[in-house]
Design a protein that fits this description.
Blueprint lengths: L4 E4 L5 H4 L4 E3 L3 E5 L7 E5 L5 E7 L5 E7 L8 H18 L4 E6 L8 E6 L2 E6 L2 H19 L7 E6 L3 H4 L5 E5 L6 E6 L2 E6 L13 H6 L1 H4 L3 E5 L5 H8 L4 E6 L2 H13 L6 E5 L2 H10 L4 E6 L11 H17 L1 E11 L6 H15 L1 E9 L18 E9 L2
Parallel strand pairs: 1-4, 9-10, 14-15, 14-17, 15-16, 17-18
Antiparallel strand pairs: 1-3, 2-6, 4-5, 5-6, 7-8, 8-9, 10-11, 12-13, 18-20, 19-20
Helix pairs in contact: 2-3, 9-10, 10-11
Length: 400
């Protein structure tokens, strides 16, 4: 059916055979047949045994991304619609779907494709050449699937502007797919209203993966003084405000993010209790400590300090520094909510780094909660790339 055959080296493809979705360039013994990068090909083991179908790109270290392991599969419109339908049916059972991640790449068996739904607007991010070629068919399938539930898609915006596209030999792409529309979309999450800027916001415009983690801080913020670091467009800060915090300070280095956060505070009538400051968190935390400032709750939601294994050591220093400084600002018996969204900051390493920060700050930690990303960003076991977010809530106490 797919005439080009990629044959693995003997012993190659171990991660793939264990359930992963990728085959790396150094695991391939031969490629037989004519093909163009992005084409769907057949994968065989070293002995000719059928392993699956995927799309090939020899410009990428992830040379083959797997679409199906079933030999009778035909990758056509019906196949793609079934993938989308399965993803949507799953989300309807586990999460509020008014705004959610509808397609999460490999975890939904559509490698390299991300689609976020903000009410009736879709934001699509395509990170692999093969899936990029299937993008029009996938988007049409999404429209059909949503329409079955009475949801008409008002517009689609593409945010395929990540640098990783260049590793696939593709240019970055951003703009409307189809008719233009207002790119400021109002959503509601955990009772908080946000105006999402799908055109100029980070990534696809809003970080949906922290949905349940933001809800988890409600119970520790009532009547409290809260510091929210790396607030982006104010999501944790606003959840603290909605939960009844007496004072919230949200901090971010982005002028655009802070401007949007202030708009969101006004949208929720929280301007009196939730204030925002444009500053570098690494510089601000020591300054607050010198001034003797104290908070009942400190929230640390930094961007990924590392996007590769080679820079993990520097990332550790960054995570250790902000957690140490954050703990020093917490009243005895107060709470720290801290997280890492870097896949390469592995769970045990993040845990160890927090422990080192606690020792450096002379604090003891009582773990109240450990969470990962919201279920619309499912973690596909044996596909490590889908597990990236680690989130803790600790009570922070003085050495006893």
């Amino acid at each position: 059916m797919y005439d080009t055959i990629v044959t693995l080296k003997k012993g190659g493809g171990r991660a793939f055979k264990a359930g992963g979705a990728w085959i790396y360039d150094n695991e391939i013994d031969s490629v037989m047949g004519n093909f163009t990068n992005g084409d769907i090909i057949t994968v065989h083991d070293f002995d000719g045994y059928f392993l699956g179908y995927g799309f090939i790109n020899t410009k990428s270290k992830l040379t083959v991304r797997i679409l199906s392991r079933k030999k009778d599969t035909v990758i056509d419109d019906a196949f793609l619609e079934k993938r989308v339908q399965d993803a949507w049916d799953y989300r309807k059972q586990v999460v509020d779907t008014s705004s959610c991640r509808l397609i999460f790449g490999e975890a939904d068996y559509l490698p390299g494709m991300v689609i976020d739904k903000f009410e009736d607007v879709l934001v699509v991010e395509s990170l692999a050449l093969g899936i990029d070629r299937l993008k029009p068919q996938i988007l049409e399938a999404v429209k059909r699937v949503l329409l079955k539930d009475g949801i008409t898609v008002k517009g689609i915006y593409e945010r395929s502007d990540a640098k990783v596209r260049e590793q696939e030999g593709m240019e970055r792409s951003k703009g409307f797919i189809g008719a233009p529309f207002d790119t400021h979309v109002k959503i509601v999450e955990n009772g908080v209203q946000y105006m999402v800027n799908v055109e100029d916001g980070q990534k696809t415009g809003f970080f949906l993966d922290q949905k349940n983690n933001r809800a988890a801080i409600h119970k520790i913020c009532k009547g409290k003084r809260v510091l929210d670091c790396f607030t982006h467009t104010g999501s944790f800060a606003l959840n603290a405000g909605i939960a009844g915090a007496k004072e919230v300070i949200g901090v971010d280095a982005s002028e655009l993010g802070i401007a949007q956060a202030r708009e969101n505070a006004a949208l929720n009538n929280l301007e009196d209790r939730v204030q925002f400051l444009c500053a570098d968190v690494f510089e601000l935390l020591p300054e607050l400590e010198k001034k003797g400032e104290k908070f009942d709750v400190v929230i640390l939601d930094p961007p990924a300090f590392t996007k590769s294994r080679s820079s993990v050591k520097n990332a550790i220093k960054g995570y250790r520094e902000i957690n140490l400084r954050g703990m020093k600002l917490i009243e005895d018996g107060g709470f720290l909510a801290t997280c890492s969204c870097s896949h390469f900051m592995e769970p045990e390493l993040f845990k160890k780094t927090i422990a080192e920060a606690a020792r450096g700050a002379h604090k003891r930690l009582k773990q109240a909660e450990f969470r990962t990303q919201a279920p619309d960003h499912p973690i596909l076991w044996a596909s490590d790339s889908s597990y990236y977010l680690k989130f803790y809530i600790f009570q922070v106490v003085e050495d006893r």
